[in-house]
Amino acid sequence: MHELRTGLAFFLLLNILAGMVRVIRGPTVTDRFIVAQLFGTTGVGVLILLAADAGRDALRDVALVFALLAPVTVVAFVRFAVGSDAAPGSDKEPRP
């Protein structure tokens, strides 16, 4: 069973590497945004798979922390991509 979980984790890591191509090539900000979400979700999945082995309970805790931080990083990415004009509390009106 250990080999199966390790194989699945390796497959998910290959998906992350394929996503890196999309980050580098783009072509749009939306593509990069979707890949950022892929990194967060896949990273949590890899850690959960590896945490299933005996004696690796700390990886489960790290996966939970990553799952909580992933939405924060997505919001930060969107704010960076959109710019500060649409920031809450800004006295400027967003551009049309």
Automatic annotation (TrEMBL):
GO terms for cellular component: plasma membrane. The keyword Ubl conjugation does not apply. The keyword Cell membrane applies. It holds the Pfam family MrpF_PhaF. It is a multi-pass membrane protein. It comes from the Bacteria. One of its GO terms (molecular function) is sodium:proton antiporter activity. The chain crosses the membrane at residues 33-50, 62-82. It is found in: Cell membrane. Keywords: Cell membrane, Membrane, Transmembrane, Transmembrane helix, Transport. Signal peptide: none annotated. Belongs to the CPA3 antiporters (TC 2.A.63) subunit F family. This is pH regulation protein F. It comes from Myxococcus llanfairpwllgwyngyllgogerychwyrndrobwllllantysiliogogogochensis.
